[in-house]
Amino acid sequence: MTTSPESSMPATHQRRKAERPQELLDAALSLFVEKGFAATRADEVATRAGVSKGTLYLYYASKEELLKAVIAQRLSSQIAEGARQVAEHRGSCAELLRNVLSTWWENVFDSDASGVFKLIITEVRNFPEIAEFYFREVVEPGQNLIGSVVQRGIDRGEFRPVPVNSVVQSLVLPMVMLCVHKHSLGACNACGAPDAMVEPRLFIRQHIDLLLGGLCVPTSAVPLGASSTNPSSTQVTP
Question: Rounded to whole angstroms, how far apart are CA atoms 174 and 109?
């Protein structure tokens, strides 16, 4: 039986309606990064998404709610996926940090999610509600997740007994700045800034390896006072 155009319209309409929230989030993040959160108007987001301003408010009550939804989708969900990988991992903690962090950051850098960091750094001071949401949904769970892996490595004797929070900050902050650079100096082609940075994926892997080099306990570490001929000299220091 041939389907008439009229009979296909409801399904098409429903599919279009289901896609609208995603289209609004995509349009919002694009404009927020281009113009800034404060400078972007809700009607501009609606226009770029191809809907009316009234339709936008059917899905998101305010521009702030739009940004919260962007943060939750682009970053919070990725942290949740990282937590699942951490829970299922059965190898060394060094391998876990290297694989999970490098994959996560490469995915973030390659996507428009990297623009969220620029927004947070440049504008969140003027929007305390967004700052609180970002801390609760991204900073706190992200730090706790990475910190739990570092602490697990310390407890197992794989990592040196170092301040966990300092390690977490050392791992994360350069990655954040890499994303900020992409959407600031890195976007200024006229100044040649992109050529001044190392290839991002290479930087991510090298940065993690550098941190792990200082974090991991050498397998040939010799306890203080031990003789080089003593069989115990191959013992790993805690």
Answer: 12
Report residue 54: phi and psi, to 5°: -65, -35
Where in the chain does DSSP place strands (E)? none
Tally the domains of the chain: 2
- Number of C-beta neighbours around residue 105 at 10 A: 26
Which ranges of 36-139 would DSSP assign to H, the alpha helix?
Answer: 42-49, 53-59, 63-71, 77-88, 93-110, 114-123, 128-134
Contact between 99 and 82 (Cβ < 8 Å): no
One domain, residues 124 and 143: yes
In whole angstroms, what is the distance from residue 62 CA to residue 59 CA?
Answer: 9
Residue 217: how many other CB atoms lie within 10 Å: 18
pLDDT tens digit sequence for 140-182: 999 999 999 999 999 999 999 999 999 999 999 999 999 998 8
Torsion, Cα 44 45 47 48, to 10 degrees, reads 110
Q: At 113, which CATH number?
A: 1.10.357.10
Say yes or no: 122 and 182 in one domain: yes
Domain hosting 210: range is 72-219
Look up the pTM and report it. 0.79
**Neighbour-count burial for 178-196, b at 16+ CB within 10 Å, e otherwise:** bbbbbbeebeeeeeeeeee
